[in-house]
What we know:
The complex is a heterodimer.
Chain A: H1 2-10, H2 15-24, H3 28-52, H4 58-80, H5 88-111, H6 116-137, H7 141-149, H8 157-176, H9 178-186, H10 188-193, H11 198-220, H12 225-239, H13 243-268, H14 272-293
Helix pairs in contact in A: 1-13, 3-8, 3-11, 3-12, 3-13, 4-5, 4-6, 4-7, 4-11, 4-12, 5-11, 7-11, 8-11, 12-13, 12-14, 13-14
Chain B: E1 2-11, E2 19-27, E3 31-35, H1 42-49, E4 57-62, E5 65-66, E6 76-79, H2 94-100, H3 103-106, H4 113-126, H5 141-154, E7 159-163, H6 171-186, E8 190-194, H7 198-204, E9 207-212, E10 214-219, H8 226-233
Parallel strand pairs in B: 3-8, 3-9, 6-7, 7-8
Antiparallel strand pairs in B: 1-2, 1-4, 4-5, 9-10
Helix pairs in contact in B: 2-5, 4-5
Amino acid sequence: MTGLLQAAVVDAATPAVLGVYREMLGFEFMQRALVAGLLVGILAPLVGSFLVHRRMAFIGDTLAHVAFAGVAAGLFARSALGYSQEFLPFLTALVVAALAAVLIQAMADYADVYNDVSMAIVLSGGFAIGTVLVSLSGGIAVSINQYLFGGVTRLSWTDVCVLAGLTVLVVGIVVASYKQLLYSTIDERAARVARMDVDRTNYLLVVLAALVIVGAMQVLGVILVAAMLVVPVAAAGQIAPTFRSSILIAILIAQLSTVSGITFSYTNDVAASGSMVLVAIGLYVIAVIFGRRFRIGQ
Amino acid sequence: MTVLDVANVTFGYTEVDVLENVSLTLDDGEFLGLVGPNGSGKSTLLSIALGLRRPDSGTATLFGEPAHAFDDGHRIGFVGQGVASNDRSVPITVEEIVRLGRFPHAGFGRFGPADHEAVDRAMETTGVAELADRRIQSLSGGQRQRAFIARALAGEADLLALDEPTVGVDAESREEFYSLLNGLSADGVAILLIEHDIGVVTEHADTVACVNCTLHYHGDPGGFDADVLADAYGTAHQVVHHDHYPDHA
């Protein structure tokens, strides 16, 4: 952990590290990895800022595991049924995760609360379907690893362009709907009384979460993708003076985690997704200590 | 002018009715205190009156329109239960909370000078201007409550609806809070306050309504006596006398 934090904070400015960056960026696959990581570092905290403060942090994990079923269905269709479409797993994951998001929101509306038991059932059910489909289709274990644990170095420029398009779309929607998202996050009942369209905003948010999860899944993997929605936001919440600044600080923390995590992964030949998340957690711990020390917001 | 009109409303979440044939009106500038035992249907009645729920039978109108179809959200300010509690860790400042009140005005557009002026004015009126940059959870219960009232005022609301907003607030802040409500009422704002403390309501409100499934009383605070109380709450109910409200039970 100490080494990771050094990569994030201390070593970043030294000439030796500049040399590492020069060497690393000489490889096109590392360029793609960094650009994809930076895009995820914008997307995930942006949407996560509204999820975390509604106490819906768990939905990221749920959608990621359900998206795994979508990936497995796409890989199954590609290998067993002979479809050659490269983007099929991505598209099926997108559709399945978005449908699951709508289902979760409908269940929450019905029960008047986000029920952790039903979320857990959807999560494990999605992952179970995924594992069954994987075992049915036999030889796709290598491809599935990329989705499970992330494969940032295996991305193509097309993958990166799709992620960039997704980032533009999600940022545009969040900017346009900022007032609705914020009001219903802070005080849902008052937002309803003020005739803000809370129901539509709630569905919009969970579908945005599904888009982000699927987009970020190839970088971070199913298991760790939700961390980037939650950890930078939790860290920013400790030190940000305002809500708006908390979003920007969360994005900054995610960017720092991404760059230093990928760099650490390159220099030490370890998993990039795990390194990114560990740096983010390290920054969260620092933010908690700093926030308490200086009594931010008092 | 009648701001709010609930007529012969009956409602149940299940087959058992929570409200039966309840009728209430609220005029502009009137301060109505709504009391009743726990689970008596006060919050449900408020939800119906504000158009968040539709009654099984009867009607609810806001500013002359059916409440559920009323869409001029900025005319209603709402302060809910628990605003004074310190259980949220959202990094949001007092000013950001107050700005929420202007969101129905601004829609999808940007904040204009009129919006900024309304926010500043609301913070001045409620005495939270100096706390504008403070995070909401760093404030005392009374200060937080005034910030949420400022949110309602920023929208230039004609109706202020409050659902037990003084839970967790100290006695001195509560007294200041009710003085603030009296001032707003004098300025023409209609106020509907749900409050568990009967002494407070009879002290400050113009009219009192007591509901426990049915409407047990609606009228002048002076007529809200022990017989009405026993009728609505049961004979075992005992009124607690507060030192800080020496004139009222």
